[in-house]
Please model this.
Amino acid sequence: MTWITWPFRVLTFGLWFAREIVIANIAVLRDNLTPGQDSTPGIARYMTRCRSDGEITLLAALITLTPGTLTLGTETTEAGQRSLFVHGMYADNADALRAELEGMETRMLHAIRRNGSTS
Model:
Protein backbone atom coordinates (compact mmCIF):
# COMPACT_ATOMS: atom_id res chain seq x y z
CA MET A 1 0.00 0.00 0.00
CA THR A 2 1.28 3.40 -0.89
CA TRP A 3 0.06 6.95 -0.60
CA ILE A 4 -1.29 6.62 -4.15
CA THR A 5 -3.99 4.14 -3.08
CA TRP A 6 -4.96 6.11 0.03
CA PRO A 7 -7.61 8.39 -1.60
CA PHE A 8 -9.28 5.36 -3.19
CA ARG A 9 -9.41 3.55 0.15
CA VAL A 10 -11.00 6.61 1.77
CA LEU A 11 -13.57 6.84 -1.03
CA THR A 12 -14.34 3.12 -0.82
CA PHE A 13 -14.85 3.40 2.94
CA GLY A 14 -17.13 6.41 2.48
CA LEU A 15 -19.30 4.48 0.03
CA TRP A 16 -19.39 1.42 2.31
CA PHE A 17 -20.36 3.57 5.30
CA ALA A 18 -23.11 5.33 3.31
CA ARG A 19 -24.52 1.90 2.44
CA GLU A 20 -24.41 0.86 6.11
CA ILE A 21 -26.26 4.05 7.09
CA VAL A 22 -29.04 3.24 4.62
CA ILE A 23 -29.31 -0.37 5.83
CA ALA A 24 -29.41 0.71 9.49
CA ASN A 25 -32.03 3.38 8.74
CA ILE A 26 -34.23 0.80 7.06
CA ALA A 27 -33.95 -1.54 10.08
CA VAL A 28 -34.86 1.24 12.54
CA LEU A 29 -37.68 2.52 10.34
CA ARG A 30 -39.12 -0.98 9.89
CA ASP A 31 -38.96 -1.57 13.64
CA ASN A 32 -40.78 1.70 14.35
CA LEU A 33 -43.48 1.33 11.70
CA THR A 34 -44.44 -2.31 12.29
CA PRO A 35 -46.19 -3.78 15.32
CA GLY A 36 -43.99 -5.39 17.93
CA GLN A 37 -40.34 -4.87 18.74
CA ASP A 38 -37.49 -6.52 16.85
CA SER A 39 -34.75 -4.80 18.82
CA THR A 40 -32.44 -6.61 21.21
CA PRO A 41 -30.70 -3.74 23.01
CA GLY A 42 -27.45 -4.22 24.84
CA ILE A 43 -24.17 -2.63 25.82
CA ALA A 44 -20.70 -3.93 24.95
CA ARG A 45 -17.18 -2.88 25.81
CA TYR A 46 -15.07 -2.86 22.66
CA MET A 47 -11.26 -2.85 22.86
CA THR A 48 -10.04 -0.83 19.88
CA ARG A 49 -6.86 -0.83 17.83
CA CYS A 50 -6.92 2.98 17.56
CA ARG A 51 -3.56 4.62 18.19
CA SER A 52 -4.53 8.29 18.37
CA ASP A 53 -7.24 10.52 19.77
CA GLY A 54 -8.28 11.32 16.19
CA GLU A 55 -8.81 7.67 15.32
CA ILE A 56 -10.84 6.90 18.43
CA THR A 57 -12.90 10.07 17.97
CA LEU A 58 -13.65 9.18 14.35
CA LEU A 59 -14.62 5.62 15.28
CA ALA A 60 -16.89 6.85 18.09
CA ALA A 61 -18.52 9.38 15.75
CA LEU A 62 -19.08 6.77 13.03
CA ILE A 63 -20.68 4.43 15.56
CA THR A 64 -22.97 7.17 16.86
CA LEU A 65 -23.91 8.26 13.32
CA THR A 66 -25.11 4.76 12.52
CA PRO A 67 -28.80 4.44 13.48
CA GLY A 68 -29.35 1.95 16.27
CA THR A 69 -25.93 2.41 17.87
CA LEU A 70 -24.54 4.92 20.32
CA THR A 71 -21.10 5.42 21.82
CA LEU A 72 -21.58 5.87 25.56
CA GLY A 73 -18.00 6.53 26.61
CA THR A 74 -14.33 5.70 26.34
CA GLU A 75 -11.66 4.33 28.60
CA THR A 76 -7.88 4.14 28.34
CA THR A 77 -6.02 1.58 30.42
CA GLU A 78 -2.66 2.26 32.06
CA ALA A 79 -1.05 0.28 29.22
CA GLY A 80 -2.60 2.68 26.70
CA GLN A 81 -5.27 0.30 25.36
CA ARG A 82 -8.37 2.27 24.33
CA SER A 83 -11.89 0.94 24.64
CA LEU A 84 -15.37 2.17 23.78
CA PHE A 85 -18.63 1.43 25.52
CA VAL A 86 -21.28 1.02 22.84
CA HIS A 87 -25.06 0.61 23.04
CA GLY A 88 -26.51 -1.38 20.15
CA MET A 89 -30.18 -1.95 19.36
CA TYR A 90 -30.03 -4.85 16.92
CA ALA A 91 -27.16 -7.16 17.91
CA ASP A 92 -28.05 -10.61 19.19
CA ASN A 93 -25.49 -10.38 22.01
CA ALA A 94 -22.39 -8.46 23.08
CA ASP A 95 -20.09 -10.64 20.97
CA ALA A 96 -22.17 -10.00 17.84
CA LEU A 97 -22.01 -6.25 18.51
CA ARG A 98 -18.24 -6.45 19.00
CA ALA A 99 -17.91 -8.32 15.69
CA GLU A 100 -19.84 -5.56 13.89
CA LEU A 101 -17.69 -2.90 15.54
CA GLU A 102 -14.51 -4.75 14.62
CA GLY A 103 -15.57 -4.84 10.98
CA MET A 104 -16.25 -1.10 10.99
CA GLU A 105 -12.98 -0.34 12.76
CA THR A 106 -10.94 -2.50 10.38
CA ARG A 107 -12.42 -0.76 7.34
CA MET A 108 -11.95 2.68 8.92
CA LEU A 109 -8.31 2.10 9.91
CA HIS A 110 -7.51 0.63 6.50
CA ALA A 111 -8.99 3.74 4.88
CA ILE A 112 -7.52 6.50 7.05
CA ARG A 113 -4.02 5.22 7.70
CA ARG A 114 -1.80 6.12 4.77
CA ASN A 115 -0.06 2.74 4.76
CA GLY A 116 -3.35 0.83 5.12
CA SER A 117 -2.22 -0.92 8.30
CA THR A 118 -4.99 -2.09 10.66
CA SER A 119 -2.78 -3.38 13.45
Notes: The chain has one domain: 6-112. Strands lie at 42-47, 69-76, 82-88.
